[in-house]
Amino acid sequence: MAPALRDLQKAFAAQLLGSGITIDTALPVAGDSISAAARLRVHRHHVLTSLSKALAGTYVTVERLVGEDYFKGLARSFITNELPEGPVLAEYGAAFPAFLERHPVVGQLPYLPDVARLDWALNMAFYSPTGSRLTRDHLARIPVDDLPLQCIELAAGTTLICSAYPLDRIWAATQPDAAEEPVDIGAAGVRLLVFRRPDDAGFVVLEEGEAALVAALHSSSTLEQAAVAATAANPDFDLSTAFSRVLGLGVLLHCSKDGSVTG
Amino acid sequence: MRAVAGIGLRAQHLDQVVRERPAIGFLEIHAENYLLPSPALASVENLRVDYPFSIHAVGLSLGSAEGLDEHHLERVATLVRRLQPNLVSDHLSWSVVGGRYLNDLLPLPYTEEALDVVARNVDRVQSALGRQLSIENPSCYLAFAHSTLSEPEFLAELARRTGCGLLLDANNVHVTAHNLRLDPNAWLETLPGAAITQYHLAGYAVNDADGEPILIDDHGSPVREAVWSLFGRMLHRFGPRPTLIEWDTDIPGLPVLLAEAAQAQAVLRQGEERGARAA
User: Fold this and answer.
1) What is the ipTM of this complex?
2) Which residue, among A158, A161, A234, has the nearest Cα to A192 in the 3D structure?
């Protein structure tokens, strides 16, 4: 008896992702001098290579660090356990950094999951809206006494990454035009703020107090609470200088008392 | 829309097309690459002022027995409203099962059950978009033993039931006919010409399967002679339609695509002149 379409599609997917391909009544593929298994392999090959390419497009730095062939192996193990939830491939692969954490490769490249987090954050920033941002003009319209209680949010696509490794230098060393200088992996870690720029995505290195300020704003603190957190992280923290720098990056939105968010 | 030749707009050429605005009959984009805000979407919106557009979806999964992903459909509908394209299309295939996306145009058995499923999904898409959807014939590498309809019979009945258009890909007809040992001319005979809204042209690769050649629709080379010849027969049978040059792997410089489009335009012009003489 012919399988119902829903059952056939389940069997087809299972065959594509399984280690071997078997044809049975659940999957009645016709074969001739080209066997049914060889015909199914065309689809298996396409699913794995196209999703591997999609991951390589997002995890550009990871691929540069481990090489194309090794990356394909990583991608294939990831893909068979984590298929996309939708057809927008720019949204595929959020779980890849966590997958790398559990992979033996971290024994040799312990910074790889953090590099993957940076790649993912850059991808998310690139696919985020620009829109209006909080500016000095907006701030000038707020009475000075009200400033400490202002709630300021981070624009969509803005991510703070705190790493125990010199992630900025690792990233720079993988760029096509980078000078061939060794990176001291044992150097101090960094805090990177990844964000959408007008025509692309990029990141800057934040000092400890700036990172604490941004992290506090991200968790819906008021400006005053964020400043307290920043000073706790760095006793020499200067709110005016730090806030001015973060404001200048174009990553802040103003959240008014009624909850609406404006630039 | 006049029977002009267009090209698939790929990321590699986007900046150059924005800068130089070459003469192209129309541009086609893959819907799934433009559903998120990005600098690329801003460029496409800018180009929309100067070029007619086609939106070609690859992920609606019209053949999924579990129905459509409504969230995805809504995002496609939003893009269609923004860009107001001349044509919206997707494939006679499936790619989603159990809510997971396989990123391939997977084959359907051509049965009454599958016809009901695809017709229901096409109706839903056309209702969400408020306009006609065109369905492209896929490249096939396998057939199911329990199919009861031929592919063109299936497409013809789908068009009759739903009012959808048919996007006739000459390369896919050639690839399918070779891989499934069919006669491409006989394949064309069953198709209702009035439903055809657009033609596609692309290159294919030849791989080995069990020691025999199998053709792969990889869109990675110029249109082959056999496909140009089939395209000529399609024009003779169905008349000219807007025609797209697709290139998706090993993408060459923009001039190569423009030259292919110019060749398609020349063939279309001959078809139009032949039609005018016949009238």
Assistant:
1) 0.95
2) A161
